[in-house]
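cron nightly-structures :: item 1 of 1
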Amino acid sequence: METSCNPYTGFARIKLFWALSRTPHGLLDMATPAAAALLWLGSMPPLQIVVLGLITTFAGYTAVYALNDVVDHRIDREKLGLGVDRCAENYLDAVMVRHPIAQGFLSFRDGLLWAIAWGALALIGAYLLNPVCVVIFLAGCTLEAVYCLLLKVTHFRTLVSGAVKTTGAMAAVYAVDPSPSYGFLVCVFVWLFFWEIGGQNVPNDWADIEEDRRLQARTIPVIYGPDRATVIIMGTLLVAVMLSIPVLILSRADFHPVYLLTALGIGLVLLLIPAMQLYNSKDRADAVALFNKSSYYPLSMLLLVVARITLPF
């Protein structure tokens, strides 16, 4: 039920739907499948694949992020009732209205229809690219719903989150090549899996640790405490940064050593240094900072890949 004091009316109401899908974050996440596709292909795909791929990717991320809020709206309402203002912490996912269904600005029905509509568009695009992409997208949506439902069940749900974040990249590779190397796919999967856990999921749960404790949620920071959670963050991000090298080596593009060193530098600046800051401080603000900076990691890697493909050296 929408609140009677909803300030978003008329055309401005569309902002609520973009907020539901966390569009700023979703746009950053679109770099992940783009990077995976270009890494495997080693060159720019045909223009029609680029256009269809961008539309499908945008629709897919818009649908999945909306699905997260639709499934989680009751829990989100409980968390909002605890009075934590993420906007005051420069939290990336709060640059727009945070959890509009939970706040009563959007109805559950409107949010569900929004997710279904974008999901349908993503399915059409995925089928046109490669029917295998349909299977991967449906698997990603299912895993996202399972992830949400496991909040009070097990902290191992973080593994589900890691798998969800790899689905876009897996689908993108199949979109440009129906028979990719399984070795490359496994390497990309593990690379993104550890980046998601250490740079996104656990830091995000860290920022929610006090609310999650009161809600009796089961997350890595709640179960293991701040000290062990930071060790998990550092370990997974170190693995992710190191795995970026074999991913580049297995690419069909010929990455010179300078690009490999640049990839390590990107991981150091966006992942390892913020993680070390959190390790030393055990401060919630540093958890949010790590989440925000690591969100730019796929985009930075995409720019590195584009540079290698387009530059003569």
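cron nightly-structures :: done
The chain has one domain: 16-310.
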